[in-house]
Amino acid sequence: MNLKNKSGEGRSLWINPVLDKEFRLRMRTPRSFIALLAYILILGLLAIGFIYVTMGLQNQQSGMRFDPSTSRVLFYVLSIAQLVLIAFMTPALTAGVISGEREKQTLNILLTTQQSSSAIVLSKLVSSLAFMVLIVLATLPIYSIVFLYGGISPTQLSLVFLFYLFTMLLLGSLGIMCSTLFKRTIVSVIMTYGMTMFIFAVTGVAYLLFLAIVQQSAYSPGMVPPKYSWVGFILGLNPAGALVSIFEPGISRQAFLVNSGNLQDKAPIALWLEFLLVYAVVIVGALWIAIRRIRPVRRKRKEDISTSAEEGIPSGEIAEMTPSGNGKNSK
């Protein structure tokens, strides 16, 4: 039995109308099922191809076998491939949720409802990410191949899926922000993919570039190397580097070029922890901008009031200068 609100409109107290509408429209379209099928097929073919090639090479060398170490490599390959697919699909799902409403001329109608700006933005974000979560959970049977041969614990798998959820939230927040800032969907999509490219590709290339510079300068023969290098902070901004640090914690030491005879010395911060801390601030800032910018009429009215206050015009005269709704002067 559904709970009804006091106004008698039949809306659930637990799901607002915007979120309910988005769930119904997004989950029931044929395109959603096609995207889910294509996603699983890509990962499944990748896993089967990896097993076929690995067993073929091992058969030529020392007999056909698939040991836990090879299974662990398969888990790494699947995890990195799924991270790339998430980076490809998430911006496409979120970059047009607000600008699409504006292009269909339904955003003004949505803003006149009782839903707040935060409810609208968060509902759009949750509905988009819910579909991505469904796709990622649908790949669990593919990951069961890894557990057949061992090498990976359920804890590591859970941490990887939590990292996927955080990455989807990051890219979805950036997509919502661009969709609110730009009126055209195509511009919003381009800007979102540009930010995604910066996070995934530019940070990785910058790390390799600065790593070569640091190794030639600070770690050249005759120089006293520091305890660790700052270049590791760049890799901590890259999702692939943070994901690999979850698999292998020692990667953080190598990324920061920790130089000490004591093997117990650690990196100044784990790569995955830096990734979470930095981009958590980015997520909050992107959502705050989206919520503030979704209502341009209110923002323009505040700007007019502030401008008039600077010019010394009373607020009552501003109301008198505003034209009435029927376009006729009052008698």
UniProtKB/TrEMBL annotation:
Transmembrane residue ranges: 33-53, 73-98, 119-149, 161-182, 194-214, 269-291
Organism annotation: Saccharibacillus kuerlensis
Top-level lineage group: Bacteria
Region (Disordered): 304-331
Pfam (any one): ABC2_membrane_2
Presence of keyword Acetylation: no
Keyword vocabulary terms for this entry: Membrane, Transmembrane, Transmembrane helix
Stated name of the protein: ABC transporter permease
